[in-house]
Design goal:
Layout: H1 4-9, H2 11-20, H3 27-64, H4 69-101, E1 122-127, H5 145-151, H6 160-179, E2 184-185, E3 191-192, H7 194-200, E4 218-219, H8 224-228, E5 235-237, E6 243-252, E7 271-281, H9 283-303, E8 308-312, E9 324-332, E10 337-346, H10 350-355, E11 358-360, E12 367-369, E13 371-379, H11 380-390
Parallel strand pairs: 2-6, 5-11
Antiparallel strand pairs: 1-8, 3-4, 6-7, 7-13, 8-9, 9-10, 10-13, 11-12
């Protein structure tokens, strides 16, 4: 959620941001709804002041049995009715404004390139030598019929050494991030309430991509949700920054809008495992923390010997809540292309405002909203797919990266 002062004092900043994200048509409506909301709130407050003055005056006149008492009582009753009316309308106008305001994406940082889609992203670096020979797709390594039979498409079931390798990958990633990268491992809930998803920006805009239960809980689409909400409604101390958390969790996504894409294999599933990285910090540390987090994810790929590239996403390809995002894309030989395996983003105060995550500045004691960051460190299923393809042997088996041998 953006700072409301930007809308009222510098609306052109938001207008330009929406233009870069292809949504500038809502700006005039947004300004108008804010004006209407404020007008009704102002009128409601004026009526409350009038009621208070009338009540005070009526109290005085009762003492002296003044003849104008009945007229004032009638006026007070009319004012009560007006107050009820404007209170109801104020709530309605506030709700209308909030519904639109909460759908406004974050403002990209100045160093984020302008663009409409992934074709306009900027490549920052490459690591490793891509395998140029075509190999069988990774999903030839197992029979998918069992999972499809019991759960439908976009589900997989691994057994034997493949299941063990998936578990090994998660353990390896957690070990590196906790022992070497200073992240604290957390065991988190996989079911959360709507306010937690609102805090990280999935609700209300992306409800169609979430699984909702009959109890009103949602299955988490990413470990980012519970990890970031650990600091919701908190006032932290700046000298304790940065907070760094990690978790290996299942993730549940409906994949709305992706019909026909990646319907087999481990690339796009309704349920998959992922190691998440979350940082909470101050604005002064946010840029350095973003670079550091992205590097932590890169280390995993390099230890596994998987060729990758780092991409700086353009304005039109960034996530709703992000102000800057790096994607790491791993080489997939069967497709002879790079595919996303990690996304590391800065959010500024966007998420912190929605979940009231604040900190006390160490040099003056003032309270400010924290800066949040998150990234994949990494998506386990996609990493497994990349290993199967990049480590294929001529006999169509595949080898195990050396760093995983002790887990196997």
């Amino acid at each position: 959620m953006l700072d409301i002062d930007i809308l009222r004092k510098n609306p052109e900043i938001i207008r330009e941001s929406l233009k870069e994200r292809g949504a500038e048509d809502v700006m005039d409506t947004l300004i108008e709804k804010d004006k209407n909301k404020r007008a009704f709130i102002t009128k409601h407050q004026e009526l409350l002041r009038d009621k208070k003055q009338l009540s005070s005056l009526i109290g005085e006149l009762i003492k002296y049995k003044d003849k104008s008492l009945n007229a004032l009582k009638e006026k007070a009753e009319l004012t009560d009715k007006e107050i009820t009316k404007f209170q109801r309308e104020s709530f309605k106008k506030q709700e209308e404004f909030n519904n639109l305001w909460h759908s406004i994406p974050n403002i990209p940082l100045p160093n984020v390139p302008y663009g409409k889609n992934e074709e306009d992203n900027h490549e920052i670096k490459r690591w490793g030598t891509p395998r140029e020979d075509h190999v069988l797709p990774h999903d030839f390594a197992w029979d998918q019929s069992g999972a499809v039979s019991m759960s439908g498409s976009r589900f997989v079931m691994l057994s034997g050494m493949l299941a063990r390798l998936e578990r090994a990958l998660g353990q390896f990633m957690l070990d590196v991030h906790t022992k070497e990268h200073d992240y604290t491992e957390v065991s988190v809930p996989y079911l959360v309430k709507d306010h937690a998803l609102f805090g990280t920006g999935q609700l209300p805009k992306f409800e169609d991509d979430l699984f909702k239960t009959c109890t009103g809980h949602y299955l988490i689409p990413t470990g980012e949700v519970p990890l970031t909400n650990m600091v919701a409604n908190c006032v932290m101390e700046e000298q304790s920054f940065p907070y760094r958390y990690t978790a290996l969790t299942p993730c549940f996504r409906r994949e709305a809008g992706s019909a026909g894409r990646d319907t087999s294999g481990l690339i796009r599933l309704h349920q998959f495992n992922k190691v998440e990285l979350v940082s909470i910090t101050s604005p002064e540390q946010a840029e350095e923390e973003h670079e550091r987090m992205t590097r932590c994810a890169e280390v995993i790929l390099e230890r596994l010997g998987l060729p990758y590239r780092r991409m700086l996403l353009c304005t039109g390809d960034m996530g709703f809540a992000a102000e800057k995002t790096y994607d790491l894309e791993v080489w997939m030989p069967s497709q002879q292309t790079y595919r996303e395996i990690s996304s590391c983003s800065r959010f500024g105060t966007f998420q912190a405002r929605r979940m009231r995550a604040q900190y006390r500045r160490k040099y003056d004691g003032e309270i400010h909203f924290a800066h949040t960051l998150n990234g994949s460190g990494l998506a386990v299923g996609r990493t497994l797919a990349a290993i199967i393809e990049n480590y294929r042997t001529p006999k169509q088996n595949f080898e195990i990266p050396a760093v995983l041998e002790k887990y196997m």
